[in-house]
From TrEMBL:
Residues 9-87 form the Carrier domain. This is Acyl carrier protein. SUPFAM superfamilies: ACP-like. InterPro entries: ACP-like_sf, PP-bd_ACP. It holds the Pfam family PP-binding. It comes from the Bacteria. It comes from Streptomyces daliensis.
Length: 95
């Protein structure tokens, strides 16, 4: 099987892109990949909507109503996992 790899399948690239977006959106804050910016009050409902739109546009995935679980968007690492799942990319390859 010779599947074409999307350039953003790498989790580091996805998380870096999300962190860059969030840093800009939160006034230059430096966030970590596992920092829960939702529980810390750094993301309001408008920014959450912008984040969902950013994920759709930047990573070419469709965020459906059933995907709008806050847990999918709490941290950059969770967003990266969500994007990979939507693209059908395995989280970890064993072996």
């Amino acid at each position: 099987m010779n599947a074409q790899r999307h350039p953003d399948d790498d989790t580091t690239d996805i998380t870096d892109s999300i962190l860059e977006f969030l840093s800009t959106a939160t006034g230059g804050r430096q966030l970590t990949v596992d920092q829960d910016y939702v529980s810390e009050g750094l993301v309001d409902s408008l920014l959450a909507l912008e984040l969902v739109t950013q994920v759709e546009v930047r990573f070419g995935v469709e965020v459906e109503v059933e995907d709008l679980d806050l847990d999918n968007f709490r941290t950059a690492s969770r967003i990266a996992a969500f994007v990979r799942r939507k693209r059908g990319v395995p989280e970890h390859a064993d072996g």
